[in-house]
């Protein structure tokens, strides 16, 4: 018998798979063209896609309060993205990626404990193991970082974690309109950044279909996360959704033949065990 808790697990993992595939596509595209171009076009395409879905499904408009939560989520997520990209650009991926990933999952866990009480002992162990797995998966071997990169990584992690919490508050029933509010806010911020930094939109041609697919995968992750949060505890939904780096690493290994380090392999094993514990 399928229960609401099973739905949390299924939707949470679907969110991780969708986000991970979107990150893989985005990373692949930014090897060929300007990162800002990929972000703006993928954000714009996904915004149109979501609006069409909302209209076709006749989803009722949420209240002003709920839309405000969505806007706040978009603001938090986009500023976190800017901080994360800046941390990565400094060449300190070995610090930025794991710190950001762990904090992204930790913020909703703390929020869930404060608002919904402690989860089961199995889930607590699963959460801890998942965080360790995220750290190992995201870590780059042989790379060290400085305090500046660490500060930006912490800021990005808090921002991404805040995005998950805020988006979950945006609506308890609607799916598309809260994400539209968040995505529209993010696109507005990105356009301001592009206008303020003339020339950053240049570089690379083509790839519109892949950029559209990237945007669809990213908002698909958002939608699955909202479904997971609506079906049960936000901490369970957030931890499972935050496992997206595993999907990115696996896709890079399968499609681009990128080498998977032993550390990353151990992280994926830890994540798989964590999923079993969380779903127990």
Total individual domains: 1
Shape: globular
Broad structural category: mainly alpha
- Secondary-structure element order, N to C: HHHHHHHHHHH
Distance between the termini: 14 Å
Q: What integer value in Å does the Rg equal?
A: 18 Å
Hey, roughly how much beta strand do the residues contain? Answer: under 5%
Task: Report the mean per-residue pLDDT as an integer.
Answer: 84
What is the number of beta strands? 0
Unreliable sequence segments:
none
- Report the helical percentage: over 70%
Oligomeric organization of the protein chains: single chain
Number of helices: 11
Q: Please summarize the sheet with the most strands.
A: none
Protein described:
- Helices cover 80% and strands 0% of the residues.
- By secondary structure, the chain is mainly α.
- Helix 3 runs antiparallel to helix 4.
- It is globular, with a radius of gyration of 18 Å.
Question: Which key phrases capture this entry?
Answer:
280 residues; 11 helices; 0% strand
Q: How would you summarize this macromolecular structure in one to three sentences?
A:
This protein has 280 residues and is mostly helical. It is 80% helix and 0% strand. It is built from eleven helices and no strands.
């Amino acid at each position: 018998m399928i229960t609401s808790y099973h739905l949390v697990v299924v939707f949470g993992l679907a969110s991780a798979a969708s986000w991970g595939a979107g990150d893989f596509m985005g990373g692949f595209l930014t090897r060929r063209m300007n990162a800002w171009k990929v972000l703006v076009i993928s954000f714009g395409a996904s915004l149109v896609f979501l609006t069409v879905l909302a209209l076709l499904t006749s989803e009722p408009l949420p209240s002003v309060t709920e839309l405000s939560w969505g806007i706040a989520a978009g603001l938090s997520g986009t500023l976190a993205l800017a901080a994360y990209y800046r941390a990565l650009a400094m060449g300190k991926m070995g610090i930025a990626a794991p710190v950001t990933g762990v904090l992204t999952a930790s913020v909703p866990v703390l929020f869930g404990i404060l608002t919904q009480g402690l989860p089961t002992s199995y889930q607590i162990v699963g959460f801890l193991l998942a965080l360790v797995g995220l750290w190992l998966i995201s870590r780059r071997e042989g790379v060290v970082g400085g305090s500046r990169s660490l500060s930006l990584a912490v800021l990005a992690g808090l921002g991404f974690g805040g995005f998950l919490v805020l988006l979950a508050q945006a609506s308890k029933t609607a799916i598309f309109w809260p994400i539209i509010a968040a995505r529209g806010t993010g696109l507005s911020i990105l356009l301001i950044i592009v206008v303020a930094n003339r020339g950053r939109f240049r570089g690379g041609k083509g790839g519109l279909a892949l950029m559209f697919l990237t945007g669809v995968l990213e908002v698909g992750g958002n939608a699955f996360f909202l479904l997971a949060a609506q079906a049960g505890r936000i901490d369970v939904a957030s931890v499972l959704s935050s496992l997206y780096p595993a999907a990115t690493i696996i896709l890079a290994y399968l499609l681009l033949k990128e080498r998977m380090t032993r550390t990353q392999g151990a992280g994926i094993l830890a994540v798989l065990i964590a999923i079993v514990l969380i779903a127990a």
